[in-house]
Amino acid sequence: MLSKMAWEHPPTEVGYRRLAMRRTAWMVSLVALGMIATGCLALRWLPQALAVLASALVVIVPSLPVVLVAYVRRKRIAAILKAYPWCEVRGHHPPRTPSIIAIRIAEDCAPTFRMFPFPIQVTDSENLIWFAGDPRFGGVVSPVGGYRPVRVVLDKGAGREWGGGDDALALRVGLVRRSGKATQT
Fold this sequence. Notes:
This protein is of the alpha+beta class. It has 4 helices and 6 strands; from the N terminus they run αααββββββα. Strands 1-2-3-6-5-4 form a 6-stranded antiparallel barrel. The protein is elongated, with a radius of gyration of 19 Å. The mean pLDDT is 82.
């Protein structure tokens, strides 16, 4: 355990602010692009609007749901960081799957997590990462130093191998639903 709560580590708070700014910029840029395309059509600039509308639809339609979920769920990352401490653990990415990371929590517990929504390389040359959360449900990982927090959720094939944890805390920060199932965003 590195500190009382992950949020108390200054680079973590700065990293979260950068994450929130990136997600806000993605959301604003997609909405602005859609408004520009709609404005061109409303002003009857049809020949000029077709190119803008076509490019806007190609960019907005597939990426808007993912960006919207990422934008809304950024507060869940902050709640996890404020409630759980950073723990330095070993983790590795299986070959050719950058969005999957296996984390060794204890000798008999190595759950597999999926990074959501945008995967990054979090392991260093020694395969060390920082993890904050409940290994049964998910949490936040970061490269050593806590400067790049990324949300992780249990992979579909992973089970609840670890026996410890605080269910009430996991429910409060949004790692688990009232039904007891882990959240996937």
